[in-house]
Amino acid sequence: MTERIGDSTMGAVSAWQPILDGFDENVGGEKGIVRLDEEHPNGARITLEEGGVSAPWSVTCGVYGLMVHTAFFGSETDARKAVFVMKARLAAIMDAMGSDRIYDLVERFVADF
Prior knowledge:
Layout: H1 9-14, E1 17-18, E2 33-40, E3 44-50, E4 57-63, E5 67-73, H2 76-95, H3 102-112
Helix pairs in contact: 2-3
């Protein structure tokens, strides 16, 4: 998770936009309270939940039509740090769509988180 993202990190992260009312009663897929739910215009989503059934904090993310992944964390600090890095890594995956390296990027993402 300490991979250097490069100079495009802020641009990759700033493109994400909040999703309003994305979950009934603000309860996410892990049955926790949704604290962050954002979508990238190129086709990805990331959701941060507190108090789900599997862990104190969880991050579920994916690239539409390609992958979905959930990672679990013991603290809000760790989960929010992961969200920041995951956003940049998901943007890199979207940038690689159609290339030979897409599956390597997805495999590394899942292994890292």
